[in-house]
Every structure is written in C-alpha cells, then in structure tokens.
UniProtKB/TrEMBL annotation:
BP GO annotations: carotenoid biosynthetic process
Source organism: Halobellus clavatus
UniProt domain Amine oxidase: residue ranges: 23-494
Organism taxonomic ancestry: Archaea, Methanobacteriati, Methanobacteriota, Stenosarchaea group, Halobacteria
Protein name per Swiss-Prot or TrEMBL: Four-step phytoene desaturase
Recorded GO MF terms: oxidoreductase activity
C-alpha cells in the first residue's frame, strides 16, 4: 500500500484547522507531526464532530457513528505516528456482527464465522453459498485494488484516470453500473440482496444510485469484521485527541468561526466572540457549502448556490436516544430492522422526499457489550432512521414519528420500550443543521452517487483562494469515519506538494 506522505515542506507553517471531526483531527495530526504550528477551532463544546457524545443521568450515547469498520485504516493512521490503536483504546470483535429482523417475522445473524454465513445464504437460495464466496472474492479484489490506487491516491482530475498505471489497475474493478445491478448478478433472493447492500446507508446512498465499486464494503463487513472500541467511537476521538496533544496541537472548543479573510501567508480567521488568528494556511473540516457560502466573500468561492442546490445529499436521520430499564433482548449490539421491500423507503429519501411510512432502521445497543454506557439494571439504546435531507422537521412530526418507531420496534422485534424509558432525547434534520452547520441537515455529506465519486467530489485545495484547503466527508475519498481519516492524509499531502 502507498507510503504515507512526506510533509517536511510544512515545517514551521502556521495552520488553523476549522472543525474537529475526524477529517479535521486527522489533518491536524499529520500537519503537527510535520512541524507545523496547528490550532484547531471547533464550533461545539466537544471534539469529534458528528462523533459527539451525549451523557444523561448515567447513560452515555455515541450521537453519530457507532460502527468500527476497516480496522486497517486506523492501524495505518496510528502507525504513521509510531503508535497503534491499542495505545489509546482496546477493541472487541462483535459476535454476531449484527442481527437482522425482517418485517415478515424472519430473523438472521451475520457472524465472524464465514462458514456459518455461507450456510445462511444457502438456506435462502440453492447455490447462494457458492455465490457468497464468489461475491466476497470480488469484494476483496475491489477493496485491495481500490484502496491502494483510488482511495489513498487523490485522483482529482480526469488526466489522473487516463494514466496507464491507473487503467491497468482498474481493469476488472466494478466501475460501471449500480450496486443493485451488481448484486443481482449473484443473488436473486431479495433478503440476500439487502444483506449485501445495507452498508450503503454508511455511504449515504441507495442500491440504484451507488456505484457497484462499493461492493468492497462486503469485504469490510464479512472478511475484516465488526468491532467495538473501548468507550465507543467517542473513545476513538479521545485517542486521536490525545495523540494530537502529544504532537502539540492547540485545541480550542466552543469557537465557532464567523469568517475567513485573506490568502496564503496572510489569512485572518475570526470567531463569533471576536477572537482572531493569522495563519499561513487554513483547512476547513466544516461543512463545505457552509465554508464557501457563509465564511468566505463571494469572490472567494469556487461554487455558487446553484451548484450546491444541484448536489445529491446523503440522508439525514431521525435519532432517538433511549435509556431503558431492564434488558432489551433479543436485540444485539448492532440490529437492523428491514422491510422485505425497502424500495419505497429509499424513494422517500432520494426521489420523493417525505417521512417514511414503513421505515428501514438501525438499533444500537452498546450496553450489550459495554457496561459503562448505562447504569446497572438498564440498557442503552438508540434508534436511527435514515430520512431525506431537507425534509420538514417539527416537534409535532417528531412526536408522531417517534410513536411509529416505538410501535414498529415492538411489532417486529418483540421489544416493548414505552413503559421502561427513563431517558429520552431526539436528534433530527434541524439539529444537524444547527449543531454542525450541515447543508439541508444531511447526517453525512454528499452522497456517493456515480456523479459524486472520485474526481466529481469537491477538491481538497481551493481553486479560488491560495492556501485554503478542505478535508472531511465532502472531499475524497468520501463519507464515513475511515474515509475522513484518509481525507486528512490526502489534504496534508496536497498542502505539502504545493508548499514544496
């Protein structure tokens, strides 16, 4: 795999990083290690961006990401600084990886043992066990080639894809067609197709609009495993922050940035409380549209409002954080509840935006693995329902939908929660917009459609302002905690190349 970047040309530079999500934290660490003087300004009261934590009455919730996938990316990140994840947090491999309740009464577990998973596939469709092996073989190939040549390489122009070495390595990759088309080549049974496609939610897409290349996520799921980090994803944030402090990063929380002025070597970054910084470089891990449309003068923007309005945004989410008396068996740490036909739900996200009537959703119960997230005798649970970005979000709608979700959980998993809830908080479209300055209240960023993948995503380096860079989920390689960690590396590399 490609060697991480040499960043010596940034030694001595003064850099302000705006936003403390995984992209901002990663970029800041690479720059600080190179000898840059780094200040990170975070709008909210805690670091981590969408990986914030909610603590109420002895319950601790990961507010955003809760799946620890692609452990090789975390290992590579920490190895660059002569560390390993275990220096900062322990990992537990989950068994099962997750449980699925289908709404026709069927239930299935996906586990670390591939033989058991193969048998499950065969039980639904004769020959599906062999197809399972073939699918994972293709998924592994896409992952290994894709990561080395297309994820850890920032190919930001068409000429990058016309290179012979790129063309050679791209041969055989599933670059054409949608995930739906690809999965249908292997499996006819709709439940097997859903099992291979549920990870698209992590990419902010749907089966019919996500490129087939992302079948690599099945290698991540089945071959690499699903883990739980000590203290949840917030514990991973703590580990990276601890690393950043060791590297000398100055972390400033409760510091919402109000404007960015100037250019390379002569920037002025101001916060809403009137404080100012005068760095050589600025890196934004804030929402890309918010940065351009709200923090920069009009003549300093790469894109106008029409561009941003024309983008396809990943879903927002309705989140319900629940502290519950007693246990919530038979729910597992990661639980999916899926209609046997989820097309209508995806249509209500991307085609005809409205609240779903028969939702597909995710339940996270970290108290199944970690006793520290709930008081004794209680369970920690959150429900996440993907919904359309920009959809109307009022207290009345939330209350009605909350009742629908609780009824659906009881009906399809057998777990009645209503009379046992002792802590309850919700988070939805307007909260994403307010807390994270998120465009249309998207929970993730730009969706991974064919027209918003690789060189079709906004660049790391601004074409309008010398010395201004971007990192995080709007840039390459895209959405998800591991991808944002890698985006930090790519941003730092881009800065070093320009500085050199």
């Amino acid at each position: 795999m490609k060697t991480p970047p040499e960043l010596d040309s940034l030694a001595g530079a003064d850099v302000v990083v705006i936003g403390g999500g995984f992209g901002g934290l990663s970029t800041a660490c690479y720059l600080a290690d190179a000898g840059a003087d780094v200040t990170l300004l975070e709008k909210n009261e805690q670091l981590g961006g969408r990986a914030s934590r909610l603590e109420v009455d002895g319950f601790r919730f990961d507010m955003g990401p809760s799946w620890y996938l692609m452990p090789d990316v975390f290992e590579r990140f920490f190895a660059y600084f002569d560390h390993e994840p275990a220096d900062y947090y322990d990992l537990t491999r989950l068994d099962p990886h997750y449980r699925i309740f289908f709404k026709d009464g069927d239930r299935v577990d996906m586990v670390p043992d591939l033989e058991q998973n193969r048998a499950v596939f065969e039980s639904y469709e004769p020959g599906a066990g062999e197809q399972f092996d073939r699918y994972l073989e293709k998924s592994r190939e896409n992952y290994e080639v894709g990561m080395e040549h297309f994820v850890y390489e920032d190919r930001s122009s068409l000429s990058d894809f016309l290179d012979w070495n790129v063309a050679k390595n791209a041969r055989g990759l599933s670059l054409i067609g949608s995930m739906q088309d690809h999965v249908e080549q292997y499996f006819e049974h709709p439940k097997l197709q859903q099992i291979m496609q549920y990870t698209l939610v992590f990419l902010g897409g749907a089966p019919n609009n996500t490129p087939a290349l992302y079948n690599l996520m099945s290698h991540v799921d089945f071959n690499m495993g699903v883990y739980y980090p000590e203290n949840g994803l917030g514990g991973v944030v703590d580990g990276i922050v601890e690393l950043g402090e060791e590297l000398g990063i100055d972390f400033q929380t409760a510091a919402p940035v109000s404007e960015i002025k100037g250019r390379q070597g002569a920037f002025a970054v101001r916060t809403e409380d009137g404080r100012e910084w005068f760095p050589d470089y600025v890196v934004s891990d804030a929402d890309y549209r918010h940065t351009e449309m709200e923090l920069l003068d009009e003549q300093k923007r790469q894109y106008d409002a029409d561009y941003w309005d024309s983008r396809t945004y990943a879903p927002s989410a309705f989140l319900l954080y629940l502290g519950v008396e007693g246990d919530v068996d038979p729910l597992e740490h990661h639980t999916l509840v899926l209609p046997t036909d989820w097309d209508e739900h995806f249509e209500r996200i991307f085609d005809n935006p409205e609240w779903p009537e028969d939702p597909a959703y995710y339940l996270c119960v970290p108290s199944e693995t970690d006793d520290s997230v709930a008081p004794e005798g209680h369970s920690n649970l959150f429900a996440l329902v993907p919904i359309a970005a920009g959809i109307e979000d009022t207290p009345e709608i939330r209350e009605e939908f909350r009742d629908l979700v609780l009824d659906d959980i009881a009906e399809n998993t057998g777990v009645e929660l209503r009379d046992r809830i002792v802590v309850e908080e919700s988070f939805c479209v307007s909260d994403f917009a307010e807390r994270y300055n998120s465009t249309q209240g998207t929970a993730l960023g730009l969706a991974h459609t064919l027209r918003q993948t690789a060189l079709f995503r906004p660049p790391h380096r601004s074409s309008a302002v010398d010395g201004l860079y971007f990192t995080g989920a709007f840039t390459t390689p895209g959405i998800g905690v591991p991808m944002c960690l890698i985006s930090g590396e790519l941003t730092a590399e881009s800065m070093a190349e320009q500085a050199g």
